[in-house]
């Protein structure tokens, strides 16, 4: 079993938070959060994009069991699967932004990478 960050939450809260954050990342394509949370969200978001690329019924069921909302599942299996069809991994990127005032937590944007087409290069 792989290692993961506990993020100061019990298991049910942590899974619920990650499900919501991955869903919001897919929906809005960019969210701001702490660096530690962003690194965990990146792992799950890349897994969801990989399921979208698989395109099977089993993959759709597994993705819909994790992300929240049918619109998010649809975006994974249509728009994002097409965008990353020629890419082997690294569907998200993490951009460190600032130190949060209240608790000095390092903040970062996590966003879906835009893939340049070969015609644009």
From TrEMBL:
The lineage of its organism: Eukaryota, Viridiplantae, Streptophyta, Embryophyta, Tracheophyta. One of its GO terms (biological process) is translation. InterPro entries: Ribosomal_bL17, Ribosomal_bL17_sf. Pfam families: Ribosomal_L17. This is 50S ribosomal protein L17. It comes from Aegilops tauschii subsp. strangulata. Keywords: Ribonucleoprotein, Ribosomal protein. PANTHER family: LARGE RIBOSOMAL SUBUNIT PROTEIN BL17M, RIBOSOMAL PROTEIN L17. One of its GO terms (cellular component) is cytosolic large ribosomal subunit. Belongs to the bacterial ribosomal protein bL17 family. It comes from the Eukaryota. Gene3D superfamilies: Ribosomal protein L17. One of its GO terms (molecular function) is structural constituent of ribosome.
